[in-house]
């Protein structure tokens, strides 16, 4: 298992830390893992699965809620 840092996550997902936090809070992004008192990370496999879901849906028509 590999844990991604904030920097690694940003390179992979291309979202700002604030947007990632909003998505996490809404249950639309994998939750961070508290590694230490001042350190968090994300499980790489969970983030890659999240990205794969988006890739799988990219040819579907866009639905506006």
From TrEMBL:
Highest classification ranks of the organism: Bacteria, Pseudomonadati, Pseudomonadota, Alphaproteobacteria, Minwuiales
Organism: Minwuia thermotolerans
InterPro entries named in the record: AlpA
Protein name from the UniProt record: Transcriptional regulator
Pfam families, per database record: Phage_AlpA
């Amino acid at each position: 298992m590999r844990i991604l840092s904030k920097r690694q996550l940003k390179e992979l997902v291309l979202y700002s830390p604030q947007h990632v936090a909003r998505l996490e809070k809404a249950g639309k992004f994998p939750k961070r893992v508290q590694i230490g008192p001042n350190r968090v990370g994300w499980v790489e496999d969970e983030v890659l699965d999240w990205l794969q879901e988006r890739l799988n849906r990219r040819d579907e028509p866009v639905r506006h809620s």
